[in-house]
Structure formats: structure tokens, C-alpha cells
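Protein: Cyclase family protein
Species: Halomarina halobia
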Amino acid sequence: MLSLANVRVVDLSIGVEPGVASEPWPATIERFDHRAGAEQLAGNLREQGYDVRAEDFPDGIGLAWEEVTAITHTGTHLDAPWHYGPESGGERARTIDEVPLEWCCGDAVVLDVTHLEPGDEIAPEDVDAALADLDVDLSPGDIVLLRTGADALWGTPEYLTEFPGMGADATRQLVERGARVIGTDAYGFDKPFAEMGRRYEETGDADELWPAHFAGREREYCQIEKMANLDALPRDRKVPLVTAPVKIEGASAGWVRPVALLEGDGADGEGGRKAASGRGVDA
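Structure follows.
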């Protein structure tokens, strides 16, 4: 039995970073240091009728904080069914605050699709081959993670374009087999924007536009985008995973910090530390 007394925590997230080249709509962060905090807190108390000045705080400093402006799809996040459309399976789609937490906690399997090229569409046969390579059976409620290797590009513009994405059929296949949450270490769950646009212009087929997302209009599921460090997880067994989203009323997504729980000293998996990006695997 897994015990927290003998567990290694693996951080599978990237951060919310201002101005990063890997976000089309990067966050902005306004920082208030401790002296600014003292001024703000003292001013708040004076507004309530108390004679407090910034210099009255110990050492003249108060509390630091930040004001973040970001879309809910910045950084590692969980998309709710509402993101894909107003209905799923004929019912009103759930927003992120309505997603059951039970969906976000479970055993995870890592499917290796690093052999695919950027812009490729992940098909059902790719999923079957990856599952056969693992020699594990999916059970209802299992979380499926797609390792593309794209997280190595985090911090660069290429992160936005150099990855394969899920197709509608592969997405349906996993959802029909009981997956409620599917994650990827790439920027997006579908193919890169430019590749979808190219295919649409070439064929005139609207099904080329966000097909994996829109599969969620038929049966509800959630997806995690912009994960990291999937190469640090073992692939010979299922891994306990917790990936509960921030609860934002009526939102299409919520920021999340997925963590995998590995037992004992032999839990290093295939990967190690992300030297290029500076992200470690231990929280």
C-alpha cells in the first residue's frame, strides 16, 4: 500500500510565467514588495479608522503579494467540458467548478508518442500501440497522459508549433474506455494551430478544426494541457496522480499542478531533472 511516509512527489507542471515566448497570451505579474505591503496594509487600517503607519510594522515592512492577470488556459491547466461547447452528450456541459474531484484523482498511465512528428495526428492505432508497449489494461477512471516530449521546448516559440496532437477518433477511443481525464505535455491537446489551419484550407473540412476538443461535445471528458516531466514517470505500471483544478466559478478551465506519487527509492522512472528548462521533478 502506498504510504506518504515512503513516497516521492513528482511535479508534472510548468509555471505561470510573465512574458514567456511559449504563451500566445502570456500572463502579467505585478509584484508588491514588503515595503509596498506595509503602505497598503497601513492605508487599509487607516480607512477603517485606526492610526497605523507603514513604519509601525516590524522593521517597517509588511506582507508581499502579487497581482496576476492571466487567462485560465495559461500554464498547466485542466479544461472543463464547457470549454468544448455549451453541451456535452445532450446535457449542459460542466464548468470547471462542477468537475467531480474524483475524476482528477486516479491511476495514470503514460503513453509514449515521442516517435510522432510535429503536426501529426494521434490516431487510435497509435494509442493501441502505446498501450501494448506498456502491457497494462485501462480501467474506468484511469488518467491517460500523452508523452510527446514537447515540454523540452518550454520557453521557446517552437513550443507552440512542434508537437503532435490528438485526433477525434483517438480521443473518443480513450473516453469510451473510461478515461475522464487525458493529459499532454504539449502546448495543446489538438494539433498545432497552424497545422489545423493548413488542413482546413486544403480540404474545406470543418472537422479539421479542433477535432479532439470538439469530441467532448459528444461525451464529456477533461484534458490537461502543458504538463511536464512525464519522462520521470515509470511506464511499467500505473502511477497514482492528483490533479485537482483551482475552483473558478463558471469557468472553462482552472490552473492545476498535477503531482504523481511514486513509492520508494526506485521511483526515478526513465527521466531525471530537466536541465535545459531548470524544472526539477521533485516538488
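Remarks: The chain has five helices and 15 strands.
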